[in-house]
Amino acid sequence: MQFKNFKIHVYRGYVQNNYLVEYNDKILLVDGACRPDMERIAVFVKEKLGRSMTDIKLTAVTHCHPDHAGAAHVLREKYGIPVAAPYDIDVWYSGIGGFFQHLSDTFQANFMALKMKTKLRRLYYRRKLNPDYKLFDNSELPLFSDWKAIHAPGHTSHNIMLFNKENKLLYIADSIIDTGGKFLPPVPVLFPSEMKKSLLKIKELKPDIILLAHSPSPFLPYNEEMIDKTLRKVDAKDPIFIRLFYLISKFTGEYRRRREKL
Question: Which of 18, 23, 71, 86 lies 20 to 30 Å (CA to CA) from residue 63?
């Protein structure tokens, strides 16, 4: 899709939509994708765009989950692509609780792949991202100052969204899941009150177009109804199978520290 200063290309990754923002002289990779997506990204850039992987100047990671950070490590190692991410991203998987949380999240991503009838691939990636650039609320992205990080916790303690004000374009990562017109909060929502505030931020920003990591329609015209529908479901009870994964999250040190502050 063509915008004022760039084109956005999207293709289906392992379990999520992957976005590449193409400028004349550089490319921004929006989110770090899954580990097996590295090969797909390289093929797409070289064959579809006719560009070099060295044209990707930054990977902007929104949170630590396998479908958002899994390829960032290997892309940096193989192609030297620096990573920008929330300043506290590496706290989430710290400690023994974080170790088991990391295993749980990796398992959940493969479970999603099975539901989507995707061939299972190796998803494992290092727990600590060690970003080259640390992003705070309203931080401009390095080398891409037309994009800002917007703090949007709820799914984890550190999630961000990415906003391009000039084009009124907002990448919301997992803040909303679209299952074909049915809008849902992500799984899990570990901090419901913060999740609601993050969803209300979308209303405040009033984007024209929303980009979703999990949607059959990767470019969605914004309307407040999608936010309202998601807000109503934040406090709904999940199935027992899903609630078992929540129990693992509650053993992580960062979860306990965050809950004490709320």
Answer: 23
42-47: which pairs have CB atoms within 8 A and are 24 or more residues apart?
44/9, 44/11, 44/20, 45/20
Q: CATH classification of 7-261, choosing from 2.40.10.120, 3.40.50.720, 2.40.280.10, 3.60.15.10?
A: 3.60.15.10
Cα within 13 Å of Cα(56), Cβ side: 29
- All structural domains of the chain with their residue ranges: 7-261
pLDDT digits (tens, 9 = 90+) for 43-89: 999 999 999 999 999 999 999 999 999 999 999 999 999 999 999 99
Rg value, the chain, Cα? 17
Q: What are the tokens at 147? A: 């994009």
CA distances 261 to 93, 116, 165, 256, Å, are 19, 37, 32, 9
